[in-house]
Each structure stands twice: as structure tokens, then as C-alpha cells.
Amino acid sequence: MKLYGYFRSSAAYRVRIALNLKRIAWEPVVVDLRAPVSAQHTPQFRALNPQQLIPVLQDGDHVLTQSLAIIEYLEETHPEPALLPRSPVQRAQVRALALAVACDIHPLNNLRVLNYLRDPLGHDEAVVNAWYAHWIASGLSALEQEAQRFSGDGRHTFGSAVTLADVCLVPQMANARRFSCDTAPFPTLRAICAHLETLPAFARAAPEAQPDAPPA
Ligand SMILES: N[C@@H](CCC(=O)N[C@@H](CS)C(=O)NCC(=O)O)C(=O)O
Fold it and tell me: I want to staple 16 with a disulfide (CB 3.0 to 4.6 A). Which of 10, 51, 188, 205 is the partner?
């Protein structure tokens, strides 16, 4: 499988974690979001994904977009280890945690949204950073309460095994740290991430472990 991504993309980071957890061999194709002509806007990439967003997963002749749709595809084609619990109620609860990140936190802080605040809206970096920090704090404080309710062991967002909720949480927390957001008010989320980041599937998916990451 080929994964079109970028080391800093948290949506691609989710898919990298899922591929690694399921021990699926994959090859990275770098889409440099920060290149002078950002690679997601080239005609070649637009032909692959008209949304001009990564990740894109290519599996043979199939081209898949949207990280959660990709991960559900991997879950269905490679069921072990399962990223969703068996009970319908618990599956809905795990999906809700994942969607809180993927639909309600991440889109507000995506590169194109931050760039639009800068140009044409004309906001300076202080305003852009305040926007970012506001939506992170509001989203993560709700997730902190959910994790206190649902975590079974303080090391996983839901229950005591890795789920789709963890796959979404770790990249979002990494983003929050990169933007210097205060994560001290989220001790449960911090403890969960501290554990998950030690797992090889997560560590190998981390931005700094990707071939397009700048040397440390
Ligand atoms: N809902 C999409 C979001 C994808 C997305 O926003 N990707 C970002 C990187 S994390 C991107 O390609 N941004 C390019 C841009 O904003 O121009 C998913 O989950 O795959």
C-alpha cells in the first residue's frame, strides 16, 4: 500500500499508526504541504484527491481518502488487532471520541484554515495562535472528561486496549504540543499519550520518525 502523507500531518499520522498496529506493509509518498507550490495543490495530486488534502491511501487500483474512512477500510480488511470494540454501544462510543478529534477539533486548526486567517483575513500570528489554542483547549477539555469516564486503566482513552480513539488522540496531542498549547489541564490525556507513545506502532508513526522529517 502507498500512503500519501507528510510528516507533520496529524490525519496522515492516524493512518500511519493504524497501518503499523495492523502490521501492514506500506510505502510513504511525501506530499510536501509546505513546499513553495504546496504539493497538495498540484494537478497530479488533485487528480488523486480533489479535496487537496492528505492522507490518501492507494491499495492496488483503489484510491481512498479521509483518514477515518481509510482506517475503517483497514479495520474491515485486516480485522486484527481490532481498533473497535465488539459491542455496538462501545463501538459508537469509541467512534464518538475519534470523531470529536477528527470532525470537531482538527478541521478548525488545519493548515488551510490558519492560512485563511492570515491571508486574506489579515490576522497576525498572535491571533492565529489564539484561535488555535482556543479550539484545542475547548476540544481537549471535553475529551479529558470523556477519557476520565471511559478509560479503563489510565493508559487508553477507552477501556484497556488500543482503539480508534487512541489513534486519533495521540496525533492531536502532538499537534497541541507543537503549537505550545498548555496541556497541563489534561492530565488523563497526557498519561494516556505517554503510555501509547512508547508502543512501537505509535513510535514508528511519529512525525520525527518519518523520512521527510528534518534531522533532529
Ligand atoms: N478530514 C480529513 C482531513 C484531512 C486534512 O485536513 N489533512 C491536512 C493535513 S493534517 C491537509 O492535507 N492540509 C492541507 C491544507 O490545509 O492545505 C481526514 O481526516 O483525512
Answer: 205
